[in-house]
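Working notes for the structural subgroup meeting. M.R. asked for a predicted model of this chain before we commit to crystallization trials. I am recording the input and output together here so anyone reviewing the notebook later can reproduce the run.

Input as submitted:
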Amino acid sequence: MQLPHLLSRRSSLGTVARGLGAAFLGSGLTATARSPLVAGTFRFAFLTDIHAQPEREAGAGWKKCVDAVNRFPERLDFAITGGDLVMDSLVATPERIAKEWAVFDDGLKNLRIPCHHTIGNHDIGGWSKLSHLPKDAPEYGKSLFVKKFGYEDAYHSHSHLGWHFIHLDSVALDPESGDYFGWIDEAQERWLRADLERVGKKIPIAVVTHIPFFSIWNQMHADPRKGENPKSLVNNANQIRKLLNDYNVRLVLCGHGHVVERIQLAHFNQTTFIQGGAVCGMWWKGRVAGNAEGFGVVTCHPDGRFEFEYHDYGWTAAKPA
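Returned structure, recorded in token form:
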């Protein structure tokens, strides 16, 4: 079988608007051309917005993506998921939630490398004004996600070969509307501050959040004056960014918008914000504004440099019956 091809559009980190702020939306991008691995350099896969479901051959698509990761021509040390692992727990019944997670689990079991998970809004049970899921149901809230993957909380961190990885829980509940919105709560912010202090200011850090801190996607496809929905971005992102600014945060990865997007202000700080497309494309209905169903590969270097590539794994959406 032919290996999944690397999408051709590339943007060099050294030529990003030379001294100006820049943002990119595209069907594929990478920070620099791929470099030979040296001691301390490693690669990992970034798989976001899988939206596992029994319909639209999503299970087969998810397995094809996992197979492409397994057959990737260079070593991948681990994988990271970026949230929205299942189609929608927000308004689903317990039976439906179980079916969607079964599809996700059936694909994940074939992955041959360790995987670290990030929670997305659709992985949370009943956080919608349209939901009838009882609050005492085991599927309600974030407890199913936390229990399934053995985490103490929906946010966590780990380290690998001199890099530190922080997985944030970017989803909060609005008690008045009954819906979710993008937010990092106070308890998590205290944990984040302590985790950063423990790591120190020299070690390169990658942060993973499902809901983006920043995005120009809505302005690009709608109107540059368009305001953002509270569900689209982390509403207190600037507060969290100011905390991160004191540390060696090189990369913030996210999902949620199903597009490939890179935001970098060249002289503002050292952090690059990348939205990593979607395994499912447009919920297994096809591409999103030209962005193929795909996954990211990140190469991390000991000095904090990185490269990002987006790979189309060759999925063709099923035609409606």
